[in-house]
What we know:
The chain is an all-alpha fold. The protein folds into 3 domains: 21-111, no CATH class; 121-197, Annexin V, domain 1 (Orthogonal Bundle), CATH 1.10.220.30; 248-352, Flagellar motor switch protein FliG, alpha-alpha superhelical domain (Annexin V, domain 1). Helices cover 64% and strands 0% of the residues. α4 packs antiparallel against α5, α13 packs across α15 and α18 (271-281) packs across α20 (301-314). The longest helix has 20 residues, at 319-338.
Amino acid sequence: MSLDGGMNSAPASFNTPTLTRRRKAAMVVQMLIGDGTALSLDQLPEQLQLILTRELGALRRVDRDTVAAVADEFAKELEAVGLTAPGSHDGAVSVLADHLSPLLADRLRSQLASVRNGDHWPFINGLSTKQIIAIMQAESIAVCAITLSKLPVSKAAEVLSQTPGERARRITYAMSQTANVSPETVRRIGAALAKDYGHPPSVAFDRAPVQRLGAILNSTVSDTREDVLDGLGVEDPDFARDVRKAIFTFKDIALRVKPTDVSSCIRSVDATILTTAIAAALALDDAHVASAEFILGSISQRMAGQLREDANERGPVRKVDAESAMSEITKAIREMVDGGVITLRDPDDEDQMP
């Protein structure tokens, strides 16, 4: 969609009365942003970014009919410019739908050629293997048998190989009973599956509870963290175990960081903070001592010797200073993990342990 009417080759079909093309573009962007969609607007030329900002600032309340009309025209424009990178317009809609606002995504899905012709199975076939496996595990055996029968052979084989053995056997046996299923029944099953699995359910949070709580506890003081985890262990041991795995503190360094990654992890940490953390850890429990020694053993002997000497001269460290210093080190490590620079070892995976 063009913001200025002349900086790309989009057709001039975007012509809802009383609204400029710029205003309509701003409305579509506002719909996407309002639904939490991440947009790479920084990829636009700065002049277009400025125009978009001004148009968004000029928007006030817009009635529902106008919003629907703009969404319809935007859908038609997408079809006109031929978003066919995935191989067809239908394929483009399938790729884009999960990244658009629910209102716009639903309108685009309603325009799929296959759906307009009453056949939802091409859309189902376009779902990811993971999504279809979810169907295999959630729906009735009869529905699963029909779904497997409608898939391309290669995809059906992949889905079947990842379906639990007993259920896979029941589904394949049920396929022998599909010979007399009517076309109308198959059509209705396809429509129902498209409705239920065509787009992910709306959720309030973009991360699972384990990750959200783990991130919070990462930043709390150790007494609070251990108190919460002890309580969780009583209420829900499995959840508590998963949260502990999601948490990464100083005493986890020896268990989860690879020795070859240590130098990179501490490179950005201030020398005084590093010294304080090592001095404090060496005076604490075995897990903290193990992580301090692990750091010292994973860097050059010269640097380790100097760091150990400085830590001994540092003397006793106040608890608040110790936690702050150790938190800076774990923060640096987590940033490298989040950035994909390093990966942590799984403490439950014996093959990853030294």
